[in-house]
Amino acid sequence: MMRITIIGINYAPETTGIAPYTADLARGLVARGHSVEMLTGLPHYPSWTVDRRYAGKREYMELDSGARIRRLRHYVPRRPRVLGRIRMELSFARAVLLRRWQQNPDLVVTVSPSLITAVLVVLRARLARVPVGVVVQDIYSAGVHEIGGAPVAVSWLLARMETRSINLAAGAVVIHARFVDTLATIGVRRDRLTVIPNWTHVERHGVGRGRTDVREGFGWGENEIVVLHTGNMGMKQGLENVVEAARIADEKSLAIRFVLMGDGNQRDELERLGRRLDRLQFILPVPDDEYMSVLDAADVLLVNEHPGLTQMALPSKLTSYFSAGRPVLAATEADSVTAAVLRESAAGELIGPGDPEALLRAVFALAGNPARRAELAEAGQIYASKMFDREAALDRYESWCARLSDVPVRSAGRR
Fold this sequence. Notes:
This protein is of the alpha/beta class. It contains 15 helices and 14 strands. The strands form 2 sheets. It has an 8-stranded mixed β-sheet with strand order 3-4-2-1-5-6-7-8, with helices on both faces. Strands 11-10-9-12-13-14 form a 6-stranded parallel β-sheet, sandwiched between helices. Strand 5, helix 3 (about 115-125) and strand 6 (about 130-135) form a beta-alpha-beta unit. Helix 1 packs across helix 15 and helix 8 (about 240-250) packs across helix 13 (about 355-365). The mean pLDDT is about 90. It comes from Gordonia hankookensis.
């Protein structure tokens, strides 16, 4: 049995982004017989508003499937620009460093982002002579550079911090092989990196609501093409492109509806831009047990990325999109990590980002080709079954933790 402390600012009940994978990691390690302590923040993503259930106290103690969860209070910016996010990370890092970790852990695992916390956790663990691993869900320095939210000097400093923290750790996990190449270009040692893809964290719950019921419930017409984008509405999604496509569709009276389901720091602005557009709809996130039914009811599942975004991230929504049996359309740079996964999977069509006319053409091309839609849907499900299996991924995490901590594990898999 290993004693593992996991540290990361995002955790369930947040339903999108990094949180579901960190929560599944903690639960999966407990299910495999290990002792897990989780130090995390207050639920705030993607709305950037602290969940009301966690208002007031400095610290909350919970149990989640046997994992001991300690939630630490930290600053949350109303508008998560670069300086606000740095302040939040400093606030969370300070809370983590001031708390006593569980006694004698065999391994500390820190999740990045947040980068500042990861750097300080690696340093503290090394001073305590405890092995430490880093899980890289997004490449922080690449994101700051690609979205263009910080001066060059800040981007350079963050790249140095990211490189240093990973090279000082006993090892790091990245979620796609392309991340290995990107990190190597800023000086990270390749022998420090292990690739473990994320998995499908949203499961089908029983029969679920039927396609007709879901479409009627949301007011989707039987004959209109529903293009659904789910998850965070932030800077890196660049969803102004979708708003403009809906505007063009209104002007031409096209039988299409763009649906943005989720929340995020750009939602208010997107709603302002899309006010009075008949072919644009915003809906709040749905519970996990309804999510797959909503995907099933759509005609095309959309990934939309900000122009210039290539190396920083891989949208977590793809794990669910592929499993849903619906064609995927990605508006992204041709050399992005997202494009690489679409090519590997053969499960979707690719168009350039920031081009609403191209988005409309691609949607109608898919709508008019049922055989192509079926081909893409089947390819996505095959890819998901091979690449996004939850238990296989957690087995690999258990083996990775055992190697870093030098604690023998009897056998991989749920006990």
